[in-house]
Amino acid sequence: MTGFTLQKAAALSYAGEREWHKGQPYVSSLTGLSAQPDGPAITLRGSAHGQERYSVTVTIDRGQVQDAVCSCPVGGDGRCKHVAALLARAVTAPDDFREFPPLDAALDALDAPALRAVIRRMLSREPDLLSVLLTQPTTQSSAQPTTAQVQPDGAGATSDLPGRIRVAFDLLELPDEDHWHWENDWDGPDFSELTPMLEELQELVAAALTGDHAAQRSALAAIQATLDGCHGLNAQQPDLALDDLSTLVEPARAALLSLLARPLPAELQGAALGTLHESVANLGWPGHEIDGQLDLFTELPAEDRARTVALVRGLHDGETGEYARQRRARTLYALASTGDLSAHENLALARATGDSFMITAALLDSGQPEEATALLAEHPELSLSVVAGLFQDSGALAHLEAFARTRPDPWARRWLFTHLNEQNRRAEAHAVARDALMQLPPAHADAPFWITQLKTVSPDWPADRETLITHWAARPDGPHLPPLVRLLLREQQPERAAKLLHGVPDPVGVLGLDLARQLALQLPAEQALALIIQVAAAHIAGRSRAHYQSAARTLRDAAPLIGRAEAQSAARLLTQEYPTLRALKEELQAAQLL
């Protein structure tokens, strides 16, 4: 009898209703079921059989599902139907799982030769496990003290982390050049072996910051191994975006800056600064990364900061391609916030980046708000809501407000309205909303938005509404009836909306089926009947059962308004007008109108 219980609620919570339902056909056909304790947790294993055999593993701890994985194409996150099937089997028939001895007991029973034999057999069956073996930390040995892993409290020994990092990079698999260009389903390098090593690196750096010289040497070597590995990957596959490497580069460079910000032995200080410079030259230093590391960079000695800025400036000046120069310029511009560049240099670098946002910020920093708004006029793609914070921080918000009043961009007008309303300048916000509606065609997509805003800030909405209706009704620039009718219905004035249609030969064609139906159902019965019949007839003209269903639904929904007898009379009238449409008659009968 197995020593675990799993409640359906816990299993269902993990798998989800959809996968739980999809997994039910697989529950009874699961094979190779086992349960193995591993500390407080229990690992459940089994095989599901679909298009092929899939291995399923689930970890439960104290009655809750902690983790799961399946070898099927979609089972990597443990949320597939095969995992759901294994969970369902564990809920309903836990005794079907053969109990294996605890993992620790099984390992403890093996001496070193037996363990080596087991590992060799595992590697022969799954060669990819070699990376797991070679990247594991070595244990301390009296015969080999130099291979000990440095603990956070600093034992004075050398860590094996740098070597394991280099091995992990060597074992990374990349597609060949031809495969790289045509394969679309490759997700990039698998850094799963490297990720836990970066956590070890953080522990090593923590020990280094206490003054442990061995930890300092090991931490620097591990950082160098990581950055060298990333550079090697990028050199091996130039198409591999640096963004794909940022999950490794950023923590490694942050660790390096942490070391540089503390006193180091002279030889390590020079090597660490050289490593930083080499990483910037080889891998760049994007502004978004600098933003997160700026506090660390400002803690560096002024001389080291100046040398770093000089290096990046030299790299910038040496680039021949425009994109590469802009990339270096963005790095320099980001470093400028540390105060190592003059305002003139800052503006020149911002212009060199080609980034309109950065240039706007630099112009404002140098006290040139007029030039900043002129730049915005040249770059209408730059949203005012994005740069508003820059203008506010520099005390130049009035310049942006004045610019927004002259800019025809609808998003500029929206920003101006929101800005004025937030400042409780309701009269000015009212003028912006009113002017927008006076200038926009009635059918413009922004009209409903501005109606809502005008109503929000209007001191006299009925008067504003009348002004708008009069203005729209007189507009010669396109269809105005639908938005006018929509506005009047919104304002609970359906009879006034109906008057706009007097003399219109085809009101349903002008308004569209949905709006015409909405109007008809809000009119008094004597006015509604004719329009309802027109809407039903327009549906029938579509000549499909779906259209006939809509016609029948229109008459059925109108029955409470016009009376059931009138609705049935209209249904008979339609069948007489379309005597050959058998499906129409069936739908009217289904709606109990015939």
How would you characterize the overall build of this protein?
The protein has 594 residues and is mainly alpha-helical. Among the domains are: 8-108, no CATH class; 152-173 and 191-283; 508-594, no CATH class. 64% of the residues lie in helices and 6% in strands. It has helices spanning 8-15, 17-23, 81-92, 103-108, 112-125, 130-134, 161-170, 177-182, 195-208, 213-236, 242-260, 266-283, 287-298, 302-318, 322-340, 343-353, 356-365, 369-378, 384-393, 397-406, 410-422, 426-439, 447-457, 461-473, 481-490, 494-499, 507-511, 513-520, 525-540, 545-562, 564-577, 582-590; strands spanning 31-38, 41-49, 53-61, 64-70, 98-99. β2 and β3 form a beta hairpin. α9 runs parallel beside α11 and α22 packs antiparallel against α23 (447-457). It is flat. The relative contact order is 0.03.
